[in-house]
């Protein structure tokens, strides 16, 4: 099992996190892990994201990665901050090759057959299907998965607790991602833990 495959099987849902205040990092990560979600994707969409990765990586049990990684510079900064895996919304050859060279688990984004073929050529067969609902939803992923038997996916984008079971029922889906676990604003840790527990209960691996 590859590094990214192991991470994708740790829990059924990967919370996609946009954290604006460094003081929120630890409480959010602790609440998610307490609820049963260990794999956390911190998006590089806020100026403090790298510090958030470093802070969350200190939480026992958390497997913290960087999301919204767009290029080699983002990749290296994320690894330096302590990211244990890397997620990107799309795939470029340069980023894919850099991830292989750094030997870091990498989940590249794909939205069509050409993206998947480029990923396979680079040696990847685990992908983020993004943006999942806007790219055609379940029907689109089923159609895409058919010709690529070895590929497995983490659909993300527009999915919530209600929609999650349908996605997780697909054989080609290893896990799903989503931002619904942590509502914006000051974290309500009880609410986050409850949402995480509901998500963690969706499917046992
Ligand atoms: C991502 O970067 O993966 C998405 O922004 C998450 O999508 P969602 O907010 O619709 O869950």
TrEMBL record:
Which interval of the chain is the signal sequence? none
GO terms, molecular function: (R,S)-4-hydroxy-2-oxoglutarate aldolase activity; 2-dehydro-3-deoxy-phosphogluconate aldolase activity
Q: Might you give the EC number(s) for this enzyme?
A: 4.1.2.14
The residues that cross the membrane are none
> Pfam families, from UniProt?
Aldolase
Q: In which pathway does it act?
A: Carbohydrate acid metabolism; 2-dehydro-3-deoxy-D-gluconate degradation; D-glyceraldehyde 3-phosphate and pyruvate from 2-dehydro-3-deoxy-D-gluconate: step 2/2
Listed under catalytic activity are: 2-dehydro-3-deoxy-6-phospho-D-gluconate = D-glyceraldehyde 3-phosphate + pyruvate
Keywords in alphabetical order: Carbohydrate metabolism, Lyase, Schiff base
The family this protein is said to belong to: Belongs to the KHG/KDPG aldolase family.
| Subunit text | Homotrimer.
What is the protein name given in its UniProt record? 2-dehydro-3-deoxy-phosphogluconate aldolase
Q: Which organism is it from?
A: Nguyenibacter vanlangensis
Gene for this chain: eda
């Amino acid at each position: 099992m590859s590094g990214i495959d192991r991470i994708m099987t740790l829990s059924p849902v990967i919370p996609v996190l946009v954290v604006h205040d460094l003081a929120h990092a630890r409480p959010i990560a602790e609440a998610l892990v307490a609820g049963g979600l260990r794999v956390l994707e911190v998006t590089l969409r806020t100026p403090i994201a790298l510090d958030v990765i470093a802070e969350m990586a200190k939480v026992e049990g958390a497997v913290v990665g960087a999301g919204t990684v767009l290029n080699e510079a983002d990749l290296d900064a994320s690894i330096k901050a302590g990211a244990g895996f890397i997620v990107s919304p799309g795939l470029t050859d340069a980023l894919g090759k850099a991830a292989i060279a750094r030997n870091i688990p990498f989940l590249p984004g794909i939205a069509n057959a050409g993206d998947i073929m480029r990923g396979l050529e680079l040696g990847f067969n685990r992908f983020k299907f993004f943006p999942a609902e806007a790219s055609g939803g379940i029907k689109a992923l089923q159609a895409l998965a058919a010709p690529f038997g070895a590929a497995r996916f983490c659909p993300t984008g527009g999915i919530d607790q209600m929609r999650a079971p349908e996605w997780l029922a697909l054989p080609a889906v290893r896990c799903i991602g989503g931002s619904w676990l942590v509502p914006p604003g000051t974290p309500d840790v009880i609410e986050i833990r409850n949402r995480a527990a509901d998500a963690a209960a969706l499917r046992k691996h």
